[in-house]
Design goal:
This protein has six helices and nine strands. It has 181 residues and is an alpha/beta fold. The longest helix has 15 residues, at 39-53. The relative contact order is 0.15. Belongs to the purine/pyrimidine phosphoribosyltransferase family. It is found in: Cytoplasm. Its main location: cytoplasm.
Length: 181
């Protein structure tokens, strides 16, 4: 029996629930909890990412708080790489560096342990989706401050209408998503 299943975008899309008017009127929320409840679907997602990044001279997987952790941990394990987590302020116990960034309606901050990366670290950042791109760009800033480089930002879903993938492109950060809406 093989662990690898062929990627099927139609199947993936069937496992992502659309929730209209959440969290506010006019928003079509793409909910991955239905995907998380499907072991074969998750295996397909994990294997697709692992196959993409295997043999790519990557040194770390960077996972964004919190849904990115669900993808980053198995990916790091599959590739035999360290997992670096990027969290909201006050969640990491050792010395951190942080960056503040702008959201559509306010500001947020992201932190990483100061010793999580070294100069010349080559990182794939992973999250559940690319929306406005703010969190991914903030993580990129932290990685650069520690002397590393983002090789690619990856996600299950890209929402190009929200502009995040265009911002990543403008910043010179390659990105990859399994599907887009």
């Amino acid at each position: 029996m093989t662990n690898h299943s062929k990627f099927d975008e139609e199947r993936l899309r069937s496992l992502i629930r659309a929730v209209p008017d959440w969290p506010e009127a006019g928003v079509m929320f793409r909910d991955i909890t239905t995907l998380l409840q499907d072991p074969q679907g998750m295996r397909m997602v994990h294997n697709t990412f692992a196959d993409r990044y295997r043999d790519q001279n990557i040194t770390h997987i960077g996972a964004l708080d919190a849904r990115g952790f669900l993808l980053g941990a198995p990916l790091a394990d599959a590739l035999g790489l360290p997992l670096v987590i990027f969290r909201k302020p006050g969640k990491l116990p050792a010395e951190t560096i942080s960056v503040e960034y702008t959201l559509e309606y306010g500001k947020a901050a992201l932190e990483v342990h100061k010793d999580a990366l070294t100069e010349n670290s080559r990182v794939v950042l992973i999250d559940d989706l690319i929306a406005t791109g703010g969190t991914l760009l903030a993580a990129n800033t932290l990685i650069e401050r520690l002397g590393g480089k983002v090789i690619e930002a990856a996600a299950i879903i890209d929402l190009p209408a929200l502009g995040g993938s265009a911002k990543l492109e403008t910043a010179g950060i390659p990105y990859f998503a399994l599907t887009s809406y």
